[in-house]
Design brief:
Helix content is 66%, strand content 3%. The strands form 2 sheets. A 5-stranded parallel sheet has the order 2-3-4-1-5, covered by helices on one side. A two-stranded antiparallel sheet has the order 6-7.
């Protein structure tokens, strides 16, 4: 019979059983009595066997009673231990009680909670006057951890303990089976679960018919709560109570009447389907007749192969509830609904949405493509929204716009504003205008519809040069989308569009705030978090907080969609460029160069494109970006050269022209900035800086104008660029006082530059000197030396640390003299040895 196999628990300390063992064996027999109560397999027999061994080891005459025959002639034993006392006949209890009353010695009686005969009740009551019964209940996590650790002879992870507990309910006999299988196979809990459950299932087949029927009904999903009483309990109440009590006493059911999970799995594994299916259908009919939900049983019914329309509908409904907040769970539920007989065409759009939100773009795209191949596909608008979102995440926003055009404004209804976003993002202003008009006609009061309308209107306003109004609308769209808590498919997150407009207008604090709020509000669900983290990193980079940027980049890293992969690569390029990490820049550019092959241009990718343009110019590979830049300028031309979006790219063009030493290519970008400056304060700051750059490049350094331009750049969030302008101007200033003034401006704008040279003083000739250390070089000279080792020219060294090329040359001459070397090769060799490069 199941449950009678003893479990060796002697090594578990801290339990009531262990405490009893320590007390009973702590001295010679002294008329001590104890009772043990526990279900089958709870460890009663194991404990009694341990007690018997302990008594005998000290020479105490001991009788271990396992049947009525063992009760004869107890008078000669100082320790009597009775196992399975519940199986004894009624007269035996009076015999044991007389022995206890008439003889000295110890008596321990172990029994199950059912059946309890009147004589056993009297015996237990009499013995209980000395101490209350010791109850051997289910094992807890700490006890399983100790037992598994001793049995497996090694450290056991708590995760494994939790799996064992979940499968066994803490039933000691099942814990023993699981741990034993793990020990013999060397496998984990998950890996042995199938074999152990199959073994248990075969043992259960030999139970009495009534008990087995109760367990099978419970395994199918019937319960004892009254909602769905198992058919076997529909007879007289006393008979039903006896069957349930027997199941609990055998260690097959928990005390609350729920079947032990491992027993359930084993029973279903060995029972033929023709016996299971009628019970499953009866369960469904019983629940529906009583007006109860199928939600609690539907998943398991579908997993075990039942096809039933009501089960399928219950799973669909549960999946619909989870779709917006738990897409991975929703995907599982839709698959289970399909297994239960749900219409795959009817659920296709929702299944695609759950796959997309779980970042399985290939599966989502395949479902949408198959669905749209049908005539009059159901749930068309959702399918189009999902398809467009998938194309956007793949970096092909224009294909999403094509999908919306195919659907048509009249069929899209409340999704027309999303179509407008996709079309504006890919350069189709006329198509977007038609969609906006259609959206106004089909407006609805839902929060998602309000979000879509605000997002589309805000983007439209940004293209009309109304940056303040646009930002106001987009921030509201982002707030509404986050508050809704839904992970609806959109071509772009409202928080991202709002942050891009804020960055493009110099409102970095607004950009940071809207992204932080979106992250706190879990905007767009788990799949959107990496993109929001990348935007957070970009803003931190612009605000000259590289550590924060790298931390956010680390948070975003992982299985990124193609669109985000390009954004991440551009971020790495930008961080390397701003920290003057030449090696890191080369590595990041190599990755970006490969990604560019998969990178169509859209409005929302202009920010990373501009950063890549400056990196390419620095590495003299700007021609690689010619096709992308041509597409970008064509897109902006189709949208009417919107200054909010065009000005930042013009600024990147100015910087690229400076880096490549091609003043002629600077002119069109300067003109673009000047034109936009009339209506755009951000563009005005860039235009002023552009004019200052042009004059600096021609060695016409107007200190006041440069300072004003550099501070203007800083005011619109381009602090690093402003410091760089001042540093360049200082390198070309003919007057030493002007040079010092501009260097001070650069240091004020870019604190890390100042932090690199706090100890510098100046000789009468103007050459910086400083305190030397054991290398014989000052901190400034070491800084210059590292840049020399990095292969920098005088000009590049000056640009990096805000000194003139001539000053850099003087530093290198002093380094040679200090080292006592004549050639550059000798100097490089010495520097590598000294600086560990």
């Amino acid at each position: 019979m199941i449950g009678q196999r003893p479990v060796a628990l002697r090594d578990i300390r801290g339990t009531a059983a262990a405490a009893l063992y320590e007390e009973i064996t702590g001295g010679p027999p002294a008329r001590r009595a104890a009772t043990l109560i526990g279900v089958g397999g709870s460890g009663k027999s194991a404990l009694l066997a341990d007690l018997a061994d302990a008594y005998r080891s000290t020479g105490v005459e001991t009788r271990l009673v396992r049947s009525e025959l063992d009760l004869k002639n107890l008078s000669g034993f100082r320790a009597v231990l009775i196992d399975d006392a519940h199986t004894l006949p009624e007269p035996a209890y009076e015999h044991v009680l007389r022995h206890w009353n008439e003889h000295d010695g110890d008596l321990v009686v172990a029994y199950r909670p059912w059946p309890v005969a009147p004589g056993l009740r009297r015996l237990v009551s009499a013995l209980g006057e000395q101490r209350p019964p010791v109850v051997l209940g289910p094992l807890g996590p700490a006890e399983i951890l100790t037992y598994a650790g001793r049995s497996l002879r090694g450290q056991v992870q708590m995760e494994e303990v939790e799996k064992i507990l979940a499968a066994t309910g803490g039933m000691a006999w099942l814990v023993n089976r699981m741990v034993g299988a793990m020990r013999s196979t060397g496998l984990g809990a998950d890996d042995v679960l199938g074999s152990v459950s199959l073994q248990v299932g075969h043992e259960i087949e030999h139970l009495d018919a009534g008990l087995r029927d109760l367990l099978l009904a419970s395994a199918v999903g019937f319960d004892l709560s009254g909602d769905a009483v198992p058919p076997v309990l529909e007879g007289p109440p006393a008979e039903g109570d006896a069957i349930v009590s027997e199941a609990v006493a055998c260690g097959l059911m928990m005390h609350d009447g729920t079947i032990v999970p491992l027993v359930r799995a084993g029973l279903l594994a060995v029972t033929p389907a023709y016996r299971v299916r009628p019970l499953q259908r009866a369960l469904v009919d019983t629940l529906l007749a009583g007006g109860h939900s199928l939600n609690d049983v539907a998943r398991e019914l579908a997993r075990t192969g039942l096809r039933h329309p009501h089960v399928a509908r219950a799973l669909e409904s549960t999946a619909d509830d989870a779709l917006a907040v738990e897409p991975e769970l929703a995907a599982e539920l839709y698959e289970e609904a399909t297994a239960a007989g749900a219409d795959t065409l009817a659920t296709a759009a929702r299944r695609a949405q759950s796959a997309a939100q779980a970042r399985d773009l290939d599966r989502a795209g395949a479902i949408v493509e198959e669905l749209l191949g049908h005539e009059n596909p159901p749930d068309l608008v959702r399918a189009v929204d999902v398809g467009a979102s998938v194309w956007a995440q793949r970096g092909m926003l224009s294909r999403g716009a094509d999908l919306y055009r195919w659907a048509g404004a009249e069929r899209l209804g409340a999704s027309a504003p999303l179509a407008a976003v996709a079309m504006l993002g890919s350069g189709d202003a006329e198509g977007a205008e038609r969609m906006l008009a259609a959206g106004a006609r089909h407006g609805s009061p839902t929060s998602l519809a309000v979000t879509s309308a605000l997002m589309a209107d805000g983007l439209w306003e940004s293209l009309q040069g109304q940056s303040t109004r646009a930002l106001w609308m987009l921030v509201r769209a982002s707030d509404t989308f986050s508050a809704n808590g839904a992970a609806a498919p959109v071509p772009e997150l409202p928080a991202i569009i709002a942050a891009l407009v804020a960055v493009n207008t110099g409102e970095l604090a607004v950009a940071e705030s809207v992204v932080e709020d979106a992250l706190r509000g879990h905007q767009g669900g788990p799949a959107a978090a990496p993109r929001l983290q990348l935007m957070r990193a970009w803003v931190a980079m612009l605000r000259d907080r590289p550590d924060d940027a790298r931390a956010a980049l680390q948070e975003a890293d992982g299985n990124l969609v193609p669109r985000d992969e390009m954004f991440r690569t551009a971020l790495e390029v930008g961080l390397a460029r701003r920290s003057d990490d030449a090696a890191g820049l080369v590595r990041a550019w190599a990755r970006a160069r490969a990604s560019l092959l998969h990178f169509p241009v859209d409005l929302f990718s202009l920010l990373p494109l501009g950063e890549l343009l400056m990196a390419a110019a620095r590495l003299h590979e700007e021609t690689r970006l010619d096709p992308h830049l041509a597409d970008a300028w064509q897109l902006l031309e189709r949208l009417g050269q919107p200054s909010v979006w065009a000005a930042p790219l013009h600024w990147c063009g100015v910087q690229a022209a400076i880096l490549t030493g091609q003043p002629a290519s600077l002119a069109p970008h300067a003109r673009g900035l000047v034109t936009a400056a009339a209506t755009n304060p951000y563009a005005a700051a860039l235009a002023a800086a552009g004019r200052a750059w042009v004059r600096v490049l021609s060695s016409d350094v107007d200190v006041t104008a440069v300072e004003r331009a550099a501070e203007g750049l800083s005011a619109v969030g381009l602090t690093w660029d402003g410091a760089r302008l001042a540093g360049h101007a200082a390198a070309r200033a003919p007057d030493r006082a002007d040079m010092a003034r501009l260097l001070a401006c650069a240091r004020d704008l870019h604190p890390s530059a100042a932090a690199r040279q706090p100890e510098d003083t100046t000789t009468p000739s103007g050459i910086p000197v400083g305190v030397v250390d054991e290398t014989g070089l000052s901190a400034r000279e070491q800084e210059v030396a590292r840049l020399v080792l990095a292969g920098k020219t005088y000009r590049e060294i000056g640009e990096t640390i805000f000194i003139s090329p001539r000053t850099a040359e003087h530093h290198i001459a002093r380094i040679r003299r200090r080292l006592g070397v004549e050639t550059r090769g000798e100097m490089l060799t010495r520097l590598r040895a000294m600086l560990g490069e």
